[in-house]
Amino acid sequence: MIVPAEPLPAEPSPEWRAAATRSRELVVLTHGIGSTRLFLAPLAARLHAAGFAVRLYGYPSPWWSNATFGKRFAALLRRVAPGYERVHLVVHSMGGIVTRCALREELPPNLGRVVQIAPPNRGSHMATRLAVDSGHPVWDRLVVRPHRFLAPTLVELIDAPDSFVNRLGPVPPGIELGILAASRDRVLYPEQTHLEGARDHQTVEGWHTGILWKRETAELVARFLRTGAFYPQ
């Protein structure tokens, strides 16, 4: 899901560039619904400057299902994992749900930590507004029905108690997962990002997509991937 956000930030600072080393740890990043790998490029650049190898993973997000994309994502991880000591995941919005589906599949033994950024773990009120009949004939005909037809994955993100996303369950045992929420998210309520079994949860000032482009986000992500916490314990 994409909402307007602040402009892209400047390039990583000299200090971040100086920290870059040839890494044996890979970070695989993936995006949310209606988005693209390009939105993750600034974050990927900062993580690379912080010393991680990076790879951007894209998929046709509106179509098929989160489960299908999760199987494909898990297959990608199994293919790339042998070349690295650890493989971490950094995922945005619906990419967090794709990842939760992937975590139910066969995973490489060297899977590292997972950071979800603005994930609809308990569904999204905006997805419900766009994909569930409201009783208003014009809105339902012009907005809801086209979204249900063109974006079946959106239907899986509604915040009903029995929706697909709310049936996925907690973080699987042995997975260290951290969550970053956006303080002014127009797509998700803060409580909709929470997930049972998550190791850490913090909030970053900004919009749903805009926090991807903040230096603070990259620093928090890098710290969690290294230590398992966003701030020192």
UniProtKB/TrEMBL annotation:
Which Gene Ontology terms cover its molecular function? hydrolase activity
- Does this UniProt record's set of keywords contain Nucleus? no
Q: Where is the AB hydrolase-1 domain?
A: 27-176
What organism is recorded for this protein? Botrimarina colliarenosi
Q: Which PANTHER family match?
A: SLL1969 PROTEIN
Keyword terms, alphabetized? Hydrolase
Q: Does the keyword DNA damage apply?
A: no
Protein name, entry field: Alpha/beta hydrolase family protein
Q: Which Gene3D superfamilies match?
A: alpha/beta hydrolase
